[in-house]
Amino acid sequence: MPQRVFISDCEGPISKNDNAFELAVHFIPNGARFFGLLSRYDDVLADIVRRPGYSAGYTLKLIAPFLKAYGATNESITLYCRNNMLLVRDARISLERIRSIIPAYIVSTSYSQYIEALCTVLGIPKEHTFSTCLNLDAQSLSTEETRRLQALQEEILSLPSIEIPEDAERLEDLSSSSQRTIARLDTIFWEEFPKTTAGRILLEVRPVGGVEKARVVADITMTLVTSLDAVFYVGDSITDAEILRIVKDSGGVAVSFNGNRYAVEKAEISVLSDSLLAVAILAEIFAERGRDGVLELVKKETPDSFMNLMQIAQSSSTSLPEVSVITPTNLGQIARKSIAFRREVRGEAIAALG
């Protein structure tokens, strides 16, 4: 029997933060709208335009020069991450249970400073995590470049919002105002930036998202001398969509935990819960009986009996988890429920991000 392994995204399944969004809010003026606009741009390039060489999660690349321009440093980011960690309920006990029975890894688009802080809080070996390296101290910005970046940030804020219809498949499916915003952002990031220090900062940040997550998971399976059908993967956003699809198609277990529509569409199992112990229970069944055992449990268990399992596992949650197998028939209903629950758990601003 191949070695089974648990692999999870961080923000969403393990913590409530969206660290990059929160850093933008903390360091950049009007950072919430600024990050939200670039996040939508990221969704368009990754999911609709499918720009060559571009992957979901590159918002962390796009905002890096602006963090630098507004005074963020490696030390200030590390300090912020340490002081603003928000864990999902029962995250610590859940990961302890999982790690006691099978190897467990975190593969996150988050900046490495945040993941290192999480490792300290949860006692997770750093070598079992993969994240986006951010070194803002490696490059220096001149006063002129700093002012130019700050002026560009103000210009970006003045651009119309990007609205993405659910059925959008081409850039032409977006409104004309959204297309104008995308065209201007294309010029800024892919024509103007390469000639500047900001372009070097952009080039050095290589987010672990989308295709990169899939590569990391493949590397983990090679290291453990196992296969993708032995992977239990948990994700919640567009950066997890590709690896959720690959794991599901390979016969592993692909779980959307309070996921947005990108995650739900690619996963096989949906978990709606304020507690990670619902996932830990499924992971324990997977370690013992594989994918068939997980599907049997999800199809068989009533909400009450699943809650009994959580109480036996010492969950501090008082609400029932909703665990479902995702099918073409119920996909739309589950996606709507998951998006609504996601808003309750993580807040409107973070839940709206891809």
What does this molecule look like?
The longest helix has 24 residues, at 277-300. The chain folds into two domains: 5-16 and 88-133 and 209-351, HAD superfamily/HAD-like (Rossmann fold, 3-Layer(aba) Sandwich); 19-80 and 135-204, Orthogonal Bundle (AF1437-like domain fold). It has helices at residues 19-27, 31-49, 59-62, 64-69, 74-83, 91-99, 112-122, 143-158, 176-192, 197-204, 211-223, 238-249, 261-266, 277-300, 303-312, 331-346, 348-351, and strands at residues 5-8, 104-111, 129-132, 231-235, 253-257, 269-272, 322-325. The mean pLDDT is 91. Helix content is 55%, strand content 10%. It contains 17 helices and seven strands. The two termini are 37 Å apart. β2 (104-111), α7 (112-122) and β3 (129-132) form a beta-alpha-beta unit. The radius of gyration is 20 Å and the shape is globular. It has a seven-stranded mixed sheet with strand order 3-2-1-4-5-6-7, with helices on both faces. It is of the alpha/beta class.
